[in-house]
Design goal:
single chain, about 260 residues, alpha/beta, D-Maltodextrin-Binding Protein, domain 2, 6-stranded mixed β-sheet, 5-stranded mixed β-sheet, about 40% helix
Amino acid sequence: MEDALDRRAKAGRVGAMQLRIGSVPHLNVRPLIYGIEPEMTFCTPACLADAMHRREFDVGLVPVAEVLLHDQYDIINNIGVVSFGAVTSVFLVHRVPPEQIRNIAVDPSSRSSVWLLRVLLAERFGIEPKFHPCTADCEATFVFGDDAINRLARVPDEPRLDLGAAWTDWTGLPFVYAVWAAQRGVANTALAAKLRQAKADGLAHLDEIIAKTTEATPEIRRDYLTRRIRYDLDDAAKRGLKKFQDCLVKLNLVEPHELRFVE
């Protein structure tokens, strides 16, 4: 087992190394990777999580399912992709009332959001529907990420269950979708400072990000990035993350472990 001295030595070396950094390509992370995009490799959420677990990346802006599933990461403090209330990019489109849903078409490339859906359906509606490939004809279809943003622009009035709103209504807490995770022992103050500077630069250039991106409409992008998504992994967000972990443990989807936050 790597001891504290070995970890400090390793952390000192990575300052001079080119870290392998991964991220999802979605609109909601653009403010967190501003200026460092050329250094990154982009993957779907599930592929990124699997690559991080295989240690193919040193650092990743990963879906929270990965840090809850595997106890091998340090989480960079004070940075996250978070919502409090309606998020508008993670929702369930349904043709019948939620409590009557028996079959759902899902895209498996987002493990965190699918787990959130399972938690909410079990805890809020007392149902455990069957999940099917996203091409299946079901009473409900799960949509997330940029696909959800674009669908919101095309079909604004269809019946949908916003998972961010449902989570906050049920728990009173924010929901955390993604965090910066580093392989244990890799994170150091220089890395954390770099990621915080990217966040600060991105938030300072939201108008530029909104103008240069193409998802949905400028109005939807502005509402999404300024009102729906938060980027602070604060104490309330950490409580929401712990609540989600407890729910996943209850459903036997993860084993409990302590989450480690680093400055």
